[in-house]
Amino acid sequence: MTDTVIDRFLRYVVIDTQSDPSSSTQPTTEKQKNLGRLLVEELLAIGLSDAHLDEHGYVYATVPSNVDKPVPVICFCSHMDTAPDFSGTNVRPQIVRNYAGGDIRLPGDPNQVIRVADHPELKSQIGNDIITSDGTTLLGADDKAGLAEIVTAAQILVDNPDVRHGTIKILFTPDEEVGRGVNRVDLAKLGADFAYTMDGETAGHIEDETFSADGVDITIAGVAIHPGFAKGKMENAIKIAGAIIDRLPKDTAPETTEGRQGFIHPTGATGSMEKASLSFIIRDFTDEGLAVKKALLEGIVKDVMAGYPGSTYSFEVKEQYRNMKVVLDRHPEIVENAVEAVRRAGMTPVRGSIRGGTDGSRLSFMGLPCPNIFAGGHAFHSPLEWVSRQDMEKAVRTIVELAKVWEERA
Known about the structure:
Blueprint: H1 5-13, H2 32-45, E1 52-53, E2 59-63, E3 74-79, E4 94-96, E5 104-105, E6 113-114, E7 130-132, H3 141-159, E8 168-173, H4 187-190, E9 194-200, E10 205-210, E11 212-221, H5 237-246, E12 263-271, E13 275-284, H6 287-305, E14 312-321, H7 325-328, H8 332-344, E15 350-354, H9 359-365, E16 372-374, E17 386-388, H10 389-409
Parallel strand pairs: 3-8, 3-9, 9-16, 10-15
Antiparallel strand pairs: 1-2, 2-8, 4-7, 5-6, 7-17, 10-16, 11-13, 11-14, 12-13
Helix pairs in contact: 1-3, 3-10, 8-10
């Protein structure tokens, strides 16, 4: 069995693990367990005797402490599933060795080009080995890069007993991409004090802040009648739904916002004359901003519905996750230790915010404070996804150094 980070990564990405938001099972797709079983085999092979896959699709394992003093138990976490946004079937990874610069045209679909103009991070990759898909699928670096990095780091810790560390827990989750990554996690069994997701992008980056997130489902019941006799009577639910979407403010959308700006984003629409349904996600970095956007959306719905007196609607809000910074600020040593580890691994640490969420968002509010560390991937959820071998190796070094920092500072 090969054991470099790139060898592991190439094994993992060819296994289809796409999750399914329409499924009610856990995991949402049984095929995620195929990768889970392989990961357990590899963890057992490197000496982690308690590695196992549970019935819900979670992989747990432990790297035992090799010191006598008490050290906080740290967990490293990545997710096994890939996003529903783009196919993850028959992934054919390509390696551009010793990248010389310039755009990268993907061989499976000549229309798919990773352009330097759109991906300026490529400028820092000259001489590196870049892995892409062939352009017909996503690659799966989100988050199989993280999986490969954690397993590789675990092997380094096991094979080098002179590297002093406390107990290290490993957690691999299903269904992160559909917002259910920690629904059935057993935190008591995991037994960690603090955690890190390896699920970020650019090398050196640490993220201790995410969006707060809600979902909104709107159902509209119109007035259906034969169109030949509809004058003054019909209230078409499809048109009502269209009017709501048309009224959304243009400056509060994902395509017009950046940085710390939140948004309202329609993600689904179905309907007939009689009934229509709309799905939205709402994002903001503060709970106050989230509440303002929910009120704005409901105000639009009420205003539109006032023009259709025979129709009714429901407006259902579901909490999805909250900004992890609220929790992490109570435990500053978690991020401080990560910053030191990144520095020791030879990079300039960069702290930032995620315009999205991770398993760590929910874990933090479940009692396991959990910031996010880079895994090296870019252009997630698309056929243009890419990652470099060198950045994955930097992530492996960061994990090892982080284990050492916690032991030294205990």
